[in-house]
């Protein structure tokens, strides 16, 4: 089947197998490997991307379901003026160690701030419940999101 | 993990979905949010030959106040249930349960109809709909029928729908201003409930109590309800929580631990009412 999916503002039209998962469409078909595959069972959140602005786990969505939609991946966040506030927050507050969970964390945090520009610490922890980090213990991730909230938010 | 190959059809209307279901018979499965079905397909626990994608049928995504009943379209997402003002005012138990499902990403995609039709015995919304005495509306080749939630869950991941039927709506008696509670215990933050309790003060008096994770289907804790109706103190009634249940005994939790959890969670739910 043919799908037309806009990724980071760029339209892509591809012939795919219906069983192709969105995460494989991004990584294998489009070579956008910033989106990671962690658990592959919709638990860890490493594959989080925005589908029409909404955070989803791309290992549990078919590319066919994203036909005609707009996807934003980690590669699409930075603009000409540099990193997005959430990306910069992770940099400023050391919100990562190995970095494997980071693309998913950043996308989930971006969706969270789009909805709640000024979240409490508990709201940040709830919002990132679907993203696992095995390095940091989360504290510095929460601080990174707080930094982003105070410095431009979801942009 | 890659699902087995299937052919994909996107339904443009409920009628089209019903036509496709009839055409393919038992070989087809309906795909709504896909958050129960796709994981099962990736594990090859489900290998449908045809997927009928109903995810874009906006006509099935709504919350409407309809007299003293609230009608919820089957494709309404958990996220919508969490925030909808009519749900918050009329059936807040449903919002409380929706809020406890998985995580923001899962709640963005998952739908109430998909969750109920999947019929996992530990599904949060199943407990809420059962405690609310909901009625499920199914459309099929021979028309529309209503199935009470008590009759809908027929076994572990089994429901009362016929092969060519589509779940379209969930009808819930409005319960504005009546107290409710939703309690669940999970091993990790985003896990399924090991055991959960949905409790709702009923319009005619008394309390409805539903349990999840305590058997092959979600169940009403009838013994607790009857004891409460007879004036038994809540803590004493809670001791009857596991009566008549056949809780699973597996790596997640032993049957006796689940029975203990049921009592503790019912006690907490009664205290929160």
Question: Would you write up a description of this structure?
Answer:
- Chain A: InterPro entries: 2Fe-2S-bd (IPR002888), 2Fe-2S-bd_dom_sf (IPR036884), 2Fe-2S_ferredoxin-like_sf (IPR036010), 2Fe-2S_ferredoxin-type (IPR001041), Beta-grasp_dom_sf (IPR012675), Diverse_Oxidoreductases (IPR051452).
- Chain A: Keywords: 2Fe-2S, Iron, Iron-sulfur, Metal-binding, Oxidoreductase.
- Chain A: Residues 1-77 form the 2Fe-2S ferredoxin-type domain.
- Chain A: This is (2Fe-2S)-binding protein.
- The complex is a heterodimer of chains A (155) and B (273).
- Chain A is α+β, with helices and mostly antiparallel strands and 155 residues long.
- Chain A has 2 domains: 2-76, Ubiquitin-like (UB roll) (Roll); 85-150, Orthogonal Bundle (DNA polymerase, domain 1), CATH 1.10.150.
- Chain A has helices spanning 22-29, 85-92, 102-115, 121-127, 139-150, and strands spanning 2-7, 10-15, 48-51, 54-57, 70-72.
- Chain A has a 5-stranded mixed beta sheet with strand order 2-1-5-3-4, with helices on both faces.
- In chain A, strand 1 and strand 2 (10-15) form a beta hairpin.
- Chain B is of the alpha+beta class and 273 residues long.
- Chain B has 3 domains: 7-53, 2-Layer Sandwich (Uridine Diphospho-n-acetylenolpyruvylglucosamine Reductase, domain 2), CATH 3.30.43; 58-173, Uridine Diphospho-n-acetylenolpyruvylglucosamine Reductase, domain 3 (2-Layer Sandwich), CATH 3.30.465.10; 180-272, CO dehydrogenase flavoprotein, C-terminal domain (Enolase-like, domain 1).
- Chain B has 12 helices and 14 strands.
- Chain B has helices spanning 14-24, 37-42, 78-83, 85-90, 92-99, 104-109, 112-118, 124-131, 149-152, 222-229, 234-238, 255-272, and strands spanning 7-10, 28-31, 50-53, 63-66, 69-73, 135-140, 143-148, 153-155, 158-159, 166-173, 180-185, 195-201, 207-212, 219-220.
- In chain B, strands 4-5-10-6-7 form a 5-stranded antiparallel beta sheet. In chain B, strands 11-12-13-14 form a 4-stranded antiparallel beta sheet, sandwiched between helices.
- In chain B, strand 8 and strand 9 (158-159) form a beta hairpin.
- Chain B is globular.
- Classes of the chains: A alpha+beta (155), B alpha+beta (273).
- At the A-B interface, strand 4 and helix 3 of A face strand 1, helix 2 and helix 6 of B.
